[in-house]
């Protein structure tokens, strides 16, 4: 796994051994960031279920103002911190060693909002709906926020009261679902 573009381009990132995490493949990561490339510079990015931190690091490398990494597994946290130091992007990163729901509540308390919220939870465990339900009502997610869910092809991502599916990009083995909050009249 490597950084695809930006200030840390081509740097190889460490990954976590074993099957606990599955880093987003470089080809899929490149496609994702090509779709959102014009809005990354200067944005605030939230990487939920961060794993080795590859997605948030890609955002920082491409010019995100700040990225928050949420991960509770200790080996993954060590990997994220090592990757941030190695890429020299740690000055614009916040690593949160808590579960995703706790992180959302802590960020709400700090009145932080995000331009992009990316999540890549363990596949086929139902975490997508649980987290999206929280984000639907959360102040960290505004009508300008783009929520991106990486999931298995079999996972159905539904609309919520305010958070609506705006686009789906399918790959051979998984997909990205883009959601946005509906604008209030």
Automatic annotation (TrEMBL):
Class of this enzyme: transferase
Record Pfam families: Cons_hypoth95 (PF03602)
Keyword Transferase attached: yes
E.C. no: 2.1.1.171
Domain of life: Bacteria
A GO term for molecular function: 16S rRNA (guanine(966)-N(2))-methyltransferase activity
Ranges in a coiled coil: none
Keyword Membrane: no
Matching InterPro entries: DNA_methylase_N6_adenine_CS, RNA_MeTrfase_RsmD, SAM-dependent_MTases_sf
Keywords: Methyltransferase, Transferase
Record-given protein name: 16S rRNA (Guanine(966)-N(2))-methyltransferase RsmD
Originating species: Anaerostipes amylophilus
Upper taxonomic lineage: Bacteria, Bacillati, Bacillota, Clostridia, Lachnospirales
Gene coding for it: rsmD
């Amino acid at each position: 796994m490597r950084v695809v573009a930006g200030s840390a381009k081509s740097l190889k990132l460490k990954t976590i051994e074993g099957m606990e995490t599955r880093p987003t493949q470089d080809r899929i990561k490149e496609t994702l960031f090509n779709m959102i490339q014009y809005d990354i510079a200067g944005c605030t990015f939230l990487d939920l279920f961060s794993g080795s931190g590859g997605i948030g690091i890609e955002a920082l490398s491409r010019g995100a103002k700040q990225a928050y990494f949420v991960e509770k597994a200790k080996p993954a946290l060590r990997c994220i911190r090592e990757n941030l130091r190695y890429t020299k992007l740690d000055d614009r990163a916040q690593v949160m060693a808590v579960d995703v729901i706790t992180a959302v509540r802590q960020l709400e308390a700090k009145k932080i909002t995000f331009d992009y919220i990316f999540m890549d939870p363990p596949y086929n465990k139902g975490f997508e709906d649980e987290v999206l339900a929280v984000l639907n009502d959360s102040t960290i997610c505004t009508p300008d926020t783009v929520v991106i869910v990486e999931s298995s092809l079999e996972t159905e991502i539904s609309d919520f009261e305010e958070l609506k599916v705006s686009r789906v990009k399918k790959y051979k083995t998984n997909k990205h679902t883009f959601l946005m909050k509906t604008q209030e009249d």
